[in-house]
Amino acid sequence: MASSELHFLLVPLVAQGHIIPMVDLARLIASRGARVTIVTTPVNAARNRAAVDSAKRAGLDVGLVELPFPGPQLGLPEGMENADQMVDRGMYLKFFEAIWKMAEPLEQYLRALPRRPDCLIADACNPWTAGVCASVGIPARLVLHCPSAYFLLAVHNLSAHGVYDRVGDDEMEPFEVPDFPVRAVGNKATFRGFFQWPGVEKEHRDVLHAEATADGLLLNTSRGLEGVFVDAYAAALGRKTWAVGPTCASLGADDADAMAGRGNRAEVDAGVITAWLDARPPESVLYISFGSIAQLPAKQVTELALGLEASGRPFIWAIKEAKSDAAVKALLNSEDGGGFEERVRDRGLLVRGWAPQVTILSHRATGGFLTHCGWNATLEAIAHGVPALTWPSFADQFCSERLLVDVLRVGVRSGVKVPAMNVPEEAQGVQVASGDVEKAVAELMDGGEEGAARRARAKELAKEARKAMEEGGASCSDLEDMIRYVSELSRKRSHERGTSSTPVPSAAAAELGSKKGEKIEADAALSVQS
Ligand code: UDP
């Protein structure tokens, strides 16, 4: 089967850190000639339309399909469709329940298509897609993991060796990860796997089962970065595994639009930020972001602000808390005009919400990244050769910190020890005092010989990451191998089932989107089927 006849359906988890790499993956698969449709909900489609449109302008056959989000049926507010909108932790159970319910509209959509897609690639956190694939008869089903291979392997080994069972509810009991390629010490609080929370036990079992029965696994990493972890994880799961990342490293200097439009509309225009950075010396600016979900308590924001001020260095701070936290608003702008923003105005740029992160990291003036160590942020730092000041908050972020600092040696620790929820109440959420922020920033941005060696390693890793994504590179070869594998599997299974694999012309293919014409096509597809 020629790749131009292949149709991939991609189903990301509705969270920024999962949709963004899936959109990258869509672009990469489509650039090999296949047709790709990304399935998500209206709010998430609107946020990612700019990135998809830029792929279309580049001539790629990538489409967006909108499925209704079942949240309101379960009492979630209309329009709440992304993990970054969960202001109240109590909403998470309902949020995941709603995600699982997306199986119904997905199945309906698939049954309405004139021809089944050849392959469905689902985020590992969307295991409900497995039942849909079986019921509709999608020839190939792959799982995309969005965290690091380091994290996946650690969680797998901790489970397999009974370490989680042994420590039980004691989140702080120290342990070493068994049978691991490097020495890794921590506790349950900093090695907690996805869905390892009370109340989502069934969801957790679903995730494990969908992965164990998938036709293969995709990892957003490269063998150059994480080879030993990738190989050990593939061996442990016994599934065919492709390392196809870092997907963000495939964006080049010509992709300014795609970079600026990643994930959401930026609160401050990318052009304004680029002009601000253009006026600064190379590698002088520190960029600060805690990703799409993590928020610091106001007291910790204050300590960070004072530390940045004392550091005397230029910075860009994506400060989401400025939107939602009255104490943070007051810190930034006091009535007498002596607020933080005014005091640092000659060298500090505040972005009160979504920042064009990759535009910032790819600019030559950016020399450091104070990051929460989300896996995408970690890969974006690596892909652009920017050393990291690590400030993890929850989930896999403590593992990304260990990888950056202990394994790849391109990071400096801020001193955060546990997730915010494990900080004793009397600390009021503060884990890093202003003086420690100031010291850590100096170490990262200057740091003498050691700092220079760290920067040199970061640049080397960036070169390797880009090479991996280029023609002939390891991740590029893995991607092409995956496409070949899917092509063969689809042909074989379609033949076995006696189903037609006659492709419909690409333009006529149902690409349901927010545009009216696209909706009509879906309706037409529905009537063809019935
Ligand atoms: N991101 C961005 N601007 C922001 C915040 C986040 O572009 O202001 C992007 C970031 O580049 C990354 C993704 O959102 O691609 C966040 O994923 P990550 O894994 O880093 O963290 P999460 O948000 O899942 O905690």
UniProtKB/TrEMBL annotation:
Protein species of origin: Brachypodium distachyon (Purple false brome)
InterPro entries for the chain: Glyco_transf_N, UDP_glucos_trans, UDP_glycos_trans_CS
Keywords: Glycosyltransferase, Transferase
PROSITE patterns found in the cross-reference section: UDPGT
Top-level division of the source organism's lineage: Eukaryota
Pfam families recorded: Glyco_transf_N, UDPGT
Lipid biosynthesis recorded as keyword: no
One annotated GO molecular function: UDP-glucosyltransferase activity
Compositionally biased tracts (Basic and acidic residues): 513-522
Membership in a protein family: Belongs to the UDP-glycosyltransferase family.
Designated name of the protein: Glycosyltransferase
Domain Glycosyltransferase N-terminal: 9-246
Known EC number: 2.4.1.-
Disordered: annotated segments: 490-530
Claim: Iron is one of the keywords in the record: no
